[in-house]
Amino acid sequence: ELLVEKGHKDAVSIRAVAERVGVSPPAIYLHFADKDQLFYQCCRAGFEELSRRLEEAAATEGSVLERLERMGRAYIDYALERGAQYQVLMTGGDVGSIPPELMEDDPGLRAFAVLVSTITEGIESGEFRDDQDPVALAVAVWAAVHGAVMLLLDRREAEAVNSPVMPPLPATDAIVDAVVAMVHTGVTSRR
């Protein structure tokens, strides 16, 4: 809650967390080595839900392309449902200080692995282009979907304050359909 309210972990102090949960600041350090570990664990549940949705979409019936499209829509639905929580997850910070044992079975990495696996399956089946590295294609797909989500979330904020900076955008469904079509073309077309 506090992360979502403040918008970024840098705006949240250990003291504020301790006050929110009703303990002293030193008590926080009995459970977490530092602020990064605390926020990593806070964000982990959000990534668990995102990973679960992507895994479910990847496991559905249909062609690899159809499953990839469902994964993209599941990602977008999750992000738009969560709004500020999604933004905190995606800007949560540095995991470099997180011990490797805490990163085992990391749900964010697991979600990305599902995407890479799906793209690899598409390449191996001949549905997807084979002239690109599957990890590079996965990053490109993720960047397209994530970028659209961030624009849609920014539009919500801009519309809420009647911002003249953000131009009028098409309806959310039209943008989602355009991103899905772009990803479709990108993974299936060869130059």
State the fourth-level CATH superfamily.
Tetracycline Repressor, domain 2
Roughly how many Å apart are the termini? 47 Å
Summarize the helix and strand pattern as letters. Answer: HHHHHHHHHH
Total helical elements:
10
Sequence stretches where pLDDT stays below 50 over 5 or more residues? none
Portion of residues in helices? over 70%
Produce a short descriptive summary.
The chain is mainly alpha-helical. It has helices at residues 2-6, 14-21, 25-28, 35-58, 64-82, 84-90, 100-103, 107-125, 134-160, 172-188.
Sequence-ordered SSE layout with sheet pairings:
Blueprint: H1 2-6, H2 14-21, H3 25-28, H4 35-58, H5 64-82, H6 84-90, H7 100-103, H8 107-125, H9 134-160, H10 172-188
Helix pairs in contact: 4-5, 4-8, 5-6, 5-8, 5-9, 5-10, 8-9, 9-10
Characterise the protein shown here.
With 191 residues, the protein is mainly α. The protein has one domain (43-188): Tetracycline Repressor, domain 2 (Orthogonal Bundle). Helices cover 70% and strands 0% of the residues. Helix 4 crosses helix 5 (64-82), helix 5 runs antiparallel to helix 8 (107-125) and helix 9 runs antiparallel to helix 10. It is globular, with a radius of gyration of 19 Å. The N and C termini lie far apart (47 Å). The model has no long low-confidence stretch (mean pLDDT 84).
